Amino acid sequence: MKNLDGLNETFDIIFQDNQGNEIEEWYAETGIISNWIIACNCLAASLFTPSLLFATIAVECAINHDSRLQSSKKSGNFKWLNLTNNSILKQAHDVGIPTKFLCDDGETINDSKNIRFIDRRNKIAHGDCYGYRKISTITKIPPNIIRTSKSEQPTREHALHQIEKSKNFIIEWAKSIPSPVIII
Question: In the list 59, 99, 118, 157, which could disulfide-bond 89, CB 3.0-4.6 Å?
Fold first, then answer.
């Protein structure tokens, strides 16, 4: 449980259908909350690599279930928007999705270089341990603690940082009053 120190809150999302009926996100099976909870459970079990990845998947699920991006989804080859680069975040930003919450200080989605949130996702999702080590030598985490690591795998701090970014994004995404695409 010590790994969860610094994780101060959790959340739930309630969707509302066109008739005003409430549907808990768990029952809508969008994967947003369930993947975020898996990320937290992995963090608690010191499984930092999957923790980092599942935190990112939760964000991907929110973006993919947002009606504002359905035209982008339909134009893709796989009908799923993968967070492989900043371009998906730019598209999301352009339709009012609060992607700035995924950026670290000094980063923007307009940078030619991927933001750290995306870089970490890519390195882990593709098994690039050497590449992960190169991007993660210095990590700034709340409350302004700087740690250096030569680890080829994510650390607790990396996973916690990704979980916090994911949580902040999802909360702000929900506040943006999305019209989620739900298949029940």
Answer: 99
**pLDDT (tens digit per residue) in 15-72:** 666 677 766 766 667 889 899 999 999 999 999 999 999 999 999 999 999 999 988 8
Cα–Cα distances in angstroms (integers) from residue 173 to residues 8, 114, 116, 139, 180, in the given order? 19, 21, 19, 25, 11
Give the residue extent of every domain in the chain.
Answer: 2-175
Quick one: tokens of 66? 């947002």
The Cβ of residue 90 has, within 10 Å, a number of other Cβ atoms equal to 13
Give φ, ψ of 23 to 5 degrees: -130, 120
What is the rounded (10 degree) CA torsion for 12, 103, 111, 58?
-30
For the stretch 144-153, contacts whose Cβ atoms lie closer than 8 Å and that sit 24 or more positions apart, written own/partner, are: 153/48, 153/49, 153/129
SS3 141: strand
Strands (E), the chain: 14-16, 22-24, 138-141, 145-148
For 46, left (φ over 0), alpha (ψ -120 to 50), or beta? left
CB contact set of 75 (below 8 Å; sequence gap of 6+): none
